[in-house]
Amino acid sequence: MRRWLAVVWLAITLSVAPLAVAAAPSPSPLRLFITTHPAMGTEFTLYLYSASPAVAAAASEEVFDEVDRIEQLLSNYRNSSELSRINQNAGAGPVTTDPEMLDFLEQSEHWSQASSGAFDITVGRLMKAWGFFRYDGRIPMDSELEDLRAVTGWEKVKLDPAARTVQFTSPGIELDPGGIGKGFAVDAAVRILRADHIVAAMLSAGSSTVYALGAPPHKTGWRVVVPGPLPSQKTLSVITLRDTSLSSADCSQKNFTLGGHRYCHIMDPRTMRPVEGRIQVSVVAPSATASDALSNVVFVETPEQSVATLRAFAPDAHALIVSGDAGAARCTTFHWISHGTSSIDSTHCAL
User: Fold this and answer.
1) Which segment of the chain is annotated as a signal peptide (predicted)?
2) If DSSP codes are grouped into helix, strand and coil, which group holds residue 332?
């Protein structure tokens, strides 16, 4: 059974025009309810405005039930998940799956194709080889990495939408949803909020991916602070989000150091090695699935490649890039790749 934390609410006073004679009762003021729930290796936080504690509690429970359901679908840590079933069987022949899982795989394939392989969910065994699956970092031999090329590569996953099947052309492939799964879960949960007619809410998946639905009372959107990398985490930028998502990929939080060199947990599937020279990337995009995937795309690609990818496949997206030494508390490059207009306040690079 879920262990609920105390629900915290903040009363918001609304301005009300003077009442005329026999006017209808004024609506109850909106309150901010905050609930948290552990899932997908992090903590999800829901900020929700409602006039009714009962409505807020019911919506929060539905949201976290949905997150748990998506985790059971996509987890590569649970042998009972649908993704684990595919990993175990798709190398031997076509595996029939449900429409939702096929949708997840098609969206993953889309971003792999759009980025020419910079994004790739077939890195399961590669992540294990580098010790990132259980966070016990190691450096694999070059010969080991060469052997892993046979079981890495998005083009080795064949989808048949008509038959609703997935098949691996090379036995031994392992899918890892880490670069897109939280975004997929957030989008599913936001659909629950919309169905419940919630007009102002923000869902955060451990702060790595957030989606802002509507806006708080009397605001144009949700004000989100983008912190810089560890150890300082000083503010890099302040963004106003409304009906859009923000995702960040950060090398400073998950890494290991051997021989005085720091290795990032974000892989370049094309080189089979951790990305070098990048510290943090944040991406704003219309959906959480897209922002989650694109934060990894932009982290792996060069800024020039990222501009081309965003222009071609995500013209409404914006990207913040912090480059430099992942072991230092400063950045050498900080800029937004921006298309059109966006409520972004850039601040500084001195971390």
Assistant:
1) 1-22
2) coil
